[in-house]
Design a protein that fits this description.
Layout lengths: L1 H8 L8 E4 L6 H7 L4 E5 L2 E4 L2 E2 L5 E4 L2 H4 L2 H5 L1 E4 L7 E2 L7 E10 L2 E3 L5 E3 L4 E10 L2 E3 L11 E3 L6 E9 L7 E7 L2 E10 L6 E7 L2 E10 L8 E5 L2 E10 L2 E2 L5 E3 L3 E10 L2 E2 L11 E5 L1 E10 L2 E2 L5 E5 L11 E8 L2 E2 L15
Parallel strand pairs: 1-2, 2-5, 3-6, 4-7, 5-8, 6-8, 7-10, 8-11, 9-12, 10-13, 11-14, 13-15, 14-16, 15-17, 16-18, 17-19, 18-20, 19-22, 20-23, 21-24, 22-25, 23-26, 24-27, 25-28, 26-29, 27-30
Length: 351
């Protein structure tokens, strides 16, 4: 049965090879070096203390998890950066796909790069069933573009990311993940755990279109910047949950750009304690040129002043542009502690 499933996975690459680690090659790097375009590097359970450099062609790097659905094949196949370098760097492939499936990438410590995964070149990237855990980075520039765990930046063309869990407790205040694509970005089933995390979840952005569903942010208390998911042209966000996230230095989450569609958002049990210039900073801002919202629940939030959630429409210079739609909105059991907003604001007590 495993042979049949693996053959199906490789059906689109008639001449692709499967290179086993440690069976046919002793290390993952040796297997990548021996691979050709479209090959699969199949990694057995174990801890692999390596700092990988991808070849200049597309490939799949995976555990046996996609075939067996045995969680141990995923959770016990670990690329370990030993707190001494970036775990995986992906150079250009001529926009061939690099696919990473069923792995734990942990303990990277990059210099000028994130500790986990980095690419800023001509490639398409697929990430499926991945855990990013306990990474750090030194010497990165770029403010909001820097990241500790994973950084994919233009000219990366397209990215597909699904079943990603990020757990980072090493004390770095930067974004966990930064993903910018030149064309499209697909996100599904992302879990960002902020417990013990000094940084913030991060930024997903596309020059063209972005689709994201089943995203969960919880237990963050960021000191700088806002986590963001947006695209220049079209943004579709569905089934988002934000809970136990606190702020005191600006908006905590910012979503949307271009034409933005929001479905099934639940924001609850959050606190913002900002004062002075941050007294009207929001837990979340939902914004776009055109805003289309259906099913938004905001509950059990506490604000020092006002504006737990803001819904914004950019004017964009078009007097005929629709204002947008908000349907099925529930705001309940929230608390705003004051009415003295800055003079230039138009605050609501809660929204």
């Amino acid at each position: 049965m495993l042979r049949i499933i693996l053959c199906l996975l490789l059906a689109t690459a008639a001449h692709a090879a499967v290179i086993g680690v440690p069976g046919e090659q002793p290390t993952i790097q040796a297997a990548l070096d021996a691979s050709a375009s479209g090959d699969t590097v199949l990694v057995e359970r174990g801890v692999y203390q390596e700092h990988l450099i991808s070849p200049n062609h597309g490939y799949t790097l995976m555990s046996r998890w996609p075939m067996t659905r045995d969680s141990a094949d995923w959770l016990e196949t670990i690329l370990d950066g030993t707190d001494s370098g970036t775990c995986l760097r992906i150079p250009g492939t001529g926009f061939e796909w690099v696919s990473l499936q069923g792995l734990v990438v942990a303990n990277g410590h990059g210099t000028g790069f994130p500790g986990g995964i980095h690419s800023k070149d001509s490639v398409n990237v697929e990430v499926r069933n991945l855990i990013l855990r306990d990474h750090r980075a030194d010497g990165q520039h770029g403010g909001e573009s820097a990241a500790t765990c994973m950084r994919l930046r233009v000219p990366v063309r397209n990215a597909r990311i699904s079943n990603l869990q990020v757990i980072n407790t090493v004390g770095d205040t930067r974004a966990n993940v930064t993903v910018d694509t030149d064309q499209n970005l697909w996100l599904d089933s992302l879990d960002f755990d902020g417990a013990g995390n000094a940084g913030y979840a991060g930024r997903f952005w596309s020059r063209d279109s972005l689709w994201a569903s089943h995203v969960h942010y919880h237990d963050f208390n960021p000191s700088v910047y806002a986590s963001n998911i947006s695209a220049n042209s079209f943004t579709y966000l569905r089934d988002f949950e934000i809970n136990n996230c606190n702020g005191n230095a600006g908006t905590v989450f910012w979503f949307g750009d271009g034409h933005s569609v929001y479905r099934n958002f639940h924001i609850h049990d959050c606190v913002h304690t900002g004062t002075g210039e941050f007294q009207n900073a929001a837990i979340a801002i939902l914004a776009a040129d055109h805003v289309d919202i259906d099913s938004l629940i905001v509950e059990n939030t506490t604000m020092t002043e006002s504006d737990a959630v803001e819904i914004e429409r950019y004017t964009n210079g078009d007097s005929n542009q629709p204002w947008g739609d908000v349907n099925h909105l529930i705001v309940r059991n929230n608390y705003a502690g004051g009415i003295n907003a800055d003079g230039h604001e138009y605050p609501g007590r809660i929204m």
